[in-house]
């Protein structure tokens, strides 16, 4: 199969994995993070906190930080839980751009609920501000909760993706509307720019249009790179056409490998080298000196929420569970009767953990119903997971959601990164100053002739 | 007349003027600023430069910086001139917010070409980031050049202002959707927020709609304040209803007084105290040790452009002028024949300067056809102008466009500000930490019951 050959070639060429850090509400990815000792409960509104977290990731040589967004659908448990996202992803990245040097800056920007010209302007300005470190995670918005904030209902999938293709095409054209050498700024001759290298784009689509040009010259990397997130056939198509990296979500090595391959095949259909698109699934981490310490940390974090999840675990395993007996392992009869749900890709792993004899509380503390694979244990377990997926052709890298964004990032940098570096799987130092450089994405100036 | 009484009261109460700094393309307000010795020609893309300029204004105790915007209509003379505006006003203000402490941060955001929810989010996030120093200059966009970047034509004035009123109302409601004490974040009790103090806004207008709430708690000033710019009856109405400050443009003390009064009367019609709305006309400055030195600096700045302006001056004065005789004053016959154009409010001033016997080049170097009154001379002339307008009830303050944004700001801070302070017309120190505090704008939490 094509991807296996490609992997062998990667290994021969000494290719290394990419690592990104998920930055959200300022506390961390676990709901209880805002209450943890040592965490400032004001971090939700603190730009200092985000800067510090990004700096920690930069210390660990992460290639990028990633800030998801999805405005408005986040107030369900506001009595006890923080919203998931940044107050504003672009303003956060602006602060981080000023106070870091190398790390890439990637944020979600909806193709559904933004004026394309405004998105083009902000991401390009961020790219200038960060000296070539910006990436745009171009996604369609879904959910009527979000749409209602814009006074609308969610368009059909066909419309959303139709508009998304046009929006990305238009924005890349605006980004490219100043040629590589258009900005002369020669005080002696008095020439500010070469007008013949600054061209209107005059794009008129079914959903969006723009005359252009944008009034911003190229950055050190030319223009931002495109990320995409998702796993549907629509996502494969959009990323295959435009993206240099995919923010993925996969629970098994097999699923991740199939996803990665689907994106690579899509890139080929658009005449691209499949290595131009990096598949980066998520990984959640609670790193401690051993499994027990890590489980205790998760229990401290999840607090009262753990018993509430028993019902969900019942469905996953297909057996009744007793939430009054949290500290007992499942009985032999329960384990024998368990049938992992074929509809939940996490179910087999949950049963494996249950069979290891952990108490009901500890099973849940393993994160068996979280959004991504979860490492709850010493750093070497995270490194092993990442190596296995990387070498199996299931991932080009990982985006890390630390449980708590204080010591949770530092412990990854101090305990996981050095192991990966020793194994030759992760770089020792930034090779480049730009995000394109970090990802090996080709230069792009002017308007891409393939589009 | 009402405003005169009010002014007398102001003087009795020892009220002082406000000063703002215009921040645009990073070079300064004169077209030749980018070529001046000592100016880095890369300032157009430099966030360092903007931060330094804002810090200079903060050293001078300016109450705010003001960043106009109007994306896309700026590439006319790109061969020799810089675009007028920031790459992105919000990212610039984000950088400045992190690297200043007190100065207010005001930017234009179009009510015509933005999703209201996105504008609400960014200005509120900036308000949090700056600890209560954000202001939104809410204006409708005009010009088909701008509209074309959004794939549209400019709507009618009725539609633009109709939408603008709805957009501001909706955004203020989103800003107020968290009550003053909604954000509890008590680690001990585990209460993150009071759900009953976070309310959907459910606004449905003719042009825009939103469900809300926004997911951002109040800042140190509660929420950003509204600026408006313009002088039309539509502007009076919009500012009278919503604004705490008006970015004005007036060439004479009489016009400025009439404008100020019109805004105050409009505020009264909406049941507001007219002192809640500050009228702030523009002032352009070239400060040097004497008139001659200042004129020479303007000539250095304007360079080849000065002879190109002779045609315009002919129209203003109603007499033929000879652009081959730039270094001669107008003849007695020319001065006798001159008839200031009744359609140009700058014409009488231009004739006054001509009658002082300056050469044609020097007349133009006085900035007689610039966008605002221009001070070309020693600092005391700026201070005198500001005092006269302030004491005549023509202005609550001024926004300053320095000719060059390096020494042009510093010289204002060092030569004009101390005179105003000595005369008791300008504060010695920031009295407040928030922009509302600087402007004396009342607190606003939750949704304004008057709207």
UniProtKB/TrEMBL annotation, chains A, B:
Domain Luciferase-like: from-to ranges: 42-394
A single GO molecular function term of this UniProt record: monooxygenase activity
Record-listed FMN binding positions: 69, 108, 161, 232
A Pfam family per the record: Bac_luciferase
Lineage: superkingdom: Bacteria
Regions crossing the membrane: none
Alphabetic keyword roster: Flavoprotein, FMN, Monooxygenase, Oxidoreductase
InterPro entries, per database record: Diverse_substr_monoxygenases, Luciferase-like_dom, Luciferase-like_sf, NTA_MOA
Protein family membership: Belongs to the NtaA/SnaA/DszA monooxygenase family.
NCBIfam families assigned to the protein according to its UniProt record, in alphabetical order: FMN_nitrolo
Protein's UniProt name: FMN-dependent oxidoreductase, nitrilotriacetate monooxygenase family
